[in-house]
What does this fold into?
Amino acid sequence: MGTLLTAASLSLLFSLLLTPAFIRLFRRLELGQYIREDGPQSHHVKRGTPTMGGIVFILATLFGFFVAALLNGGDGITPSSLLVLLMLVGMAAVGFVDDFLKVRNQRSLGLGGWSKIAGQLAVGTVYAILAVQLPATNGLTPASTAISAIRDIPALDLARFATAIPAIGVVLYILWVNVLAAAATNGVNLADGLDGLATGASILSLGAYVFIGFWQFSQACAGGRLHPDNVAQCYATADPLSLAIVAAAICGALVGFLWWNTNPAKIIMGDTGALGLGGALCALAIETRTELLLLLIGGLFVIEAGSVIVQRAYFKATGGKRLFLMTPIHHTFELMNWREVTIVVRLWIVAGILVAVGLGAFYLEWLA
It folds into this structure.
């Protein structure tokens, strides 16, 4: 518990106090945001705002997590937590290249579509392989080959399809992890269109995993405090406390970053931050065995991505008609003349409600 609070506090102080220095540095390096011409006109005042702010809270997360762990004798540094950081940093690296090309070429397109997908696939595949191979405590690997909701679903164990040809199970598992990673990273990225929107929603979603990880730690099947022998109530997850610690570190870093990212934003997270946060959410969902529950915990990101998918499908099906004024959905509210702060706060409320429903489902399953 001490490591968790220390990690969150150190990350928060790092991003809160040092973000202004990064803002000055990014301005000096001319790392300003490019605004696309076909977007809402109100966004053009944001042209030149320092971008790649994800670098700040990723560094804050690493600082807070490792310093807190070392101060507490290495508590929290486990294969599970390191894999979450791998997804955070790996996906952020793909986003950084995308951001850098946008800034250098002064256009809305950075990496080409297939290049970006290739980068995400590379990170996701490395993560998937390591997650079921690295040893962890209590004889459990950080991830399992089963699709999970609140626990692993035995009937959806992808390894079952490998009885005749083992390679099939491996391919299906890697494919599933990459689908989940693509959904999470692109969902957060699409929500990153208004000052503070993706940052605040990510704090809520990642905060849920602080509670989930800590609860799974207290109810662990091996060494659990309340129900160590009750397999109907205990959780078979590896290193749940370390997952709570790394989630707390990211949350702390984001709270400090939000101070400067809220409207009017002094710095923008960019694809560097959005893809990194999506990667961390994906890894936490996989390692806490709550993959399908991410639909609720990351519900706002699902809505943002879903609005784009529905709009495109409707556009093609109707020969050019639009269901929404503009997608992602927050742009529709802008074109309806809602103030940006109003949109952000209301969508935070939606995100909070969905997170609460997700946590409620998690705890109710245990009670049942």
Observations:
- The chain has one domain: 2-298.
- The chain has twelve helices and two strands.
- The mean pLDDT is 90.
